[in-house]
């Protein structure tokens, strides 16, 4: 009789949709943590390929005016890694206005292969501070042969464009203008990163966007300028500054 009652009760619970409680074993829990710390990187950052910047494949640019120029000594965490020098070639003296173009940038890769790309400037921000920065250039003086100036000559950087490492999560800096005409003693803004942008390595290239690389840096020489059979040169001073307010430089 007892057995029959028990089976009936179980059957009735199933019919009514009543679920029997199941005993749960106690669960023991404990939290742990995981963390990582980053510090500013004060090591130099080598030049990268202006066609395809890749930090795992640095390159060695060739200075057309000083092939034996030593490597850039600038260290981080905010560093100006490389700036192309410009060579406008050997040209016949004329009495007409002329425009000459700088040679493209030559460099060798890690396998010793020589190739070319646009002239460029490279900067790296490994500060971890997100303050932003400003890149500018100043032509220190007229083009001279150490005695005479090349009056009225103007160097212009055309088709300025920004190139970064593929896949970077940082917001790109911006160029000041597509064409930058240099003036003696005048600081010209080239590229700027506002706060919370421009982290990592960035290149300002002249060419490879709207113009061919060999037409992107020009030297205009007026026909009326007196030209001697000599080499004329000047110094371009590139400057990278951390400027929190990013006050525009004209």
TrEMBL record:
InterPro entries in alphabetical order: WxL_dom (IPR027994)
Domain WxL: 28-244
Keywords: Signal
Disordered, as annotated region: 37-80
Residues spanning the signal sequence: 1-24
Biased composition (Low complexity): 59-74
Coiled-coil region(s): none
Pfam families per UniProt: WxL (PF13731)
Protein name: WxL domain-containing protein
């Amino acid at each position: 009789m007892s057995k029959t009652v028990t089976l009936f009760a179980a059957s009735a619970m199933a019919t009514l949709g009543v679920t029997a409680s199941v005993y749960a074993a106690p669960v023991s829990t404990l939290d742990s943590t995981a963390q990582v710390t980053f510090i500013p990187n004060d090591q130099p950052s080598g030049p990268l390929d202006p066609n395809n910047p890749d930090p795992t494949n640095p390159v060695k640019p060739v200075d057309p005016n000083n092939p034996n120029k030593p490597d850039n000594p600038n260290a981080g965490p905010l560093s100006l890694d490389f700036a192309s020098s410009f060579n406008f070639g050997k040209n016949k003296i004329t009495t007409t206005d002329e425009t000459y173009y700088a040679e493209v940038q030559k460099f060798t890769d890690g396998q010793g292969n020589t190739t070319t790309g646009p002239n460029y400037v490279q900067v790296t921000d490994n500060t971890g501070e997100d303050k932003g920065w400003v890149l500018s250039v100043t032509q220190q003086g007229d083009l001279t042969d150490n005695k005479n100036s090349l009056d009225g000559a103007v160097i212009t950087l055309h088709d300025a464009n920004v190139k970064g490492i593929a896949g970077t999560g940082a917001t790109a800096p911006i160029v000041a203008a597509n064409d930058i005409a240099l003036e003696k003693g005048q600081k010209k803004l080239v590229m700027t990163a506002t706060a919370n942008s421009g982290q990592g390595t960035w290149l300002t290239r002249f060419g490879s966007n709207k113009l061919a690389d060999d037409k992107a840096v020009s030297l205009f020489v007026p026909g009326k300028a007196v030209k001697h059979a000599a080499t004329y040169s000047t110094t371009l001073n590139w400057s990278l500054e951390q400027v929190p307010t990013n006050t525009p430089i004209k």
